[in-house]
Design a protein that fits this description.
Two copies of one chain form a homodimer. Chain A has 329 residues and is an alpha/beta fold. Chain A is 47% helix and 18% strand. Chain A has two domains: 171 residues, Isopropylmalate Dehydrogenase (3-Layer(aba) Sandwich); 131 residues, Isopropylmalate Dehydrogenase. The relative contact order of chain A is 0.16.
């Protein structure tokens, strides 16, 4: 299996990307095609130990920056690592694509190059989030910021198949992220979506609220991409703020600093439990190919794990399973 | 000054509400009219010590439950504590209204009974949130879940006046909660709102993201009520989840339990710093009167502080200041 990795994507590219890729080929049965600035990549690869037959490099003279406008840069930078990398999948030269770069550009390039699966209107980004009962899947966290109710229904179907075949949750419960539990709550858009989900074959348990996001109330959380994106980023903000408040308070108290010595392990465990890098990558569902998106902050471990996520999605033939589910719906 | 308090509002009403009211009249120069089930209220008041001239009771035979549909229950339950209490303000028999009950019902009753200030289309709930730099004000957190761009501009104007005259921030910086910083980010609705805010006299610094919510990047955060509500509830979810994860991990480690003995004070300080009850109540801005909404979970301290919030808003003549600002805009 061959996985294309955007060497130029992420806040710490290409160094961190390459370290992650090397770990991946050393650990998993997978080949990687690194796309990006060839001389720099080759230089960095020289420092690493790996089976050279498992990593190849394709030169891309351009790169799309983290905050460049998505559609415009994909149109203009035809020789960028994202566009060229996606084309390798389109042409059948690779099985999957991964980038920790500009999310909007990846969504746009994937849609243009791989196109949508028949029966799906728009792609959605699904993300595994930790919960008090293990983990949940949330879709969409930002690919489609102005969706239609039917598109949220599609996200439900895609997320359901992902839960079943990739996350090993055989009968996932499904909730709609809304501002209240009652079916009459929320905007007209939310009420329409609630109706569609209720009439579907999904195991729909109704609306869930923001306060349920990490409680594990349901296995699959369906969300408007705008709201889902804000929800995720607010979560990071809360965690960062709590961390900073705690540091500020501890600094003022020698007693607390002493106590902290005994709690180091605890905070490490907590960090691990909440750590996105354990999971690594978020699948872009609905396009005709396997595309995984990484957090801009990704470290080498997150990159490695994202490659594993791509590998599993290819092996378990997610898109074939999804097409089957759509034809039966 | 007379403040109407809905004795039946909140998860722990009327007991907790009455304890909060008694603390308020004992601490502040304020009179309270308690509206609700008179026999029960009088019975509970017997246990408390306070100047009897400072608390009076108005009987309301009905109460609106926390999860009843807002508009329908306000229409039907004309003798509920929320509807009767709001009428006391409308008739000039009191200066302000406070409830920790059904938020939607309070918004609806306030709009129907007090009506909007001239020049304002829809009311918005403003909430003080803790930040790494002190605190920020966020508006709207759920009064108007399907707003128009002009309505978000109004929220900006109202929040600006609230920051200046109530929160003592003379030149508040203003941000729009969106999914990216660039002005081209977000839905058409967000782009239009961005334009209106840019053209206004507000000290608008542009879009802010979910990750900035608690960083103190700006003094005033303007948000769509749907998104604002989700953002707040997600924040509670993260804090609860972190707390629970931490407990789970500590239980497994005797060393961590020992360390915790020395950190008790730290966690108490942290809780205080993040504690909504320190502030107590969220003003409903835009209606022709002073209306404060409390969290359903409010404890006696939060109730007391919400009464202080109402008192300050009346004393500093917020609505007069707002009308002045609107006439000059």
């Amino acid at each position: 299996m061959k996985i294309v990795v955007d060497a130029m994507g992420g806040d710490h590219a290409p160094e961190v990307v390459i370290r992650g890729v090397v770990s991946a080929v050393n650990e998993f049965d997978v080949e990687v095609i690194l796309v990006g600035e060839e001389p720099k990549i080759k230089d960095l690869l020289k420092r690493e130990r790996f089976d050279p037959s498992k990593i190849s490099v394709v030169h891309a003279p351009e790169a799309i920056g983290m905050s460049e406008p998505a559609a415009a840069s994909v149109r203009k930078k035809r020789k960028s690592s994202i566009v060229l990398g996606m084309e390798l999948v389109e042409e059948g030269k690779a099985d999957a694509f991964f980038s920790a770069g500009n999310t909007g550009a990846v969504v746009c390039a994937a849609t243009l190059s791989l196109r949508m699966l028949p029966g799906v209107e728009r792609p959605g980004i699904a993300l595994v989030i930790p919960s008090l009962k293990g983990f949940s899947l949330m879709i969409d966290v930002g690919a489609n910021i102005d969706p239609k109710p039917t598109q949220l229904l599609h996200y439900g179907l895609m997320g359901d198949v992902y839960c079943k075949y990739i996350l090993n949750k055989p009968d996932p419960t499904v909730g709609l992220l809304n501002i209240g539990e009652e079916e009459t709550k929320g905007t007209e858009f939310m009420k329409e979506t609630h109706e569609l989900l209720s009439a579907s074959k999904l195991n729909f348990i109704g609306n869930v609220e923001g306060k349920d996001l990490y409680s594990g109330k349901c296995d699959l959380i369906i969300s408007d991409g705008f709201v889902g994106n804000i929800a995720l980023k607010v979560s990071e903000s809360v965690a960062d703020a709590l961390n900073n408040f705690l540091k500020k308070i501890i600094k003022k108290s020698p007693l607390a600093m002493f106590g902290l010595l005994f709690m180091r392990g605890t905070f490490k465990d907590l960090k691990k439990e909440m750590d996105y890098s354990e999971y690594g990558g978020a699948p872009l569902l609905g396009v005709n190919g396997v595309v995984i998106i990484g957090h801009g902050r990704s470290n080498a471990k997150a990159i490695k794990n994202a490659i594993r996520v791509a590998k599993v999605e290819v092996e378990r033939q997610f898109n074939e399973k999804l097409l089957e589910a759509i034809s039966k719906k």
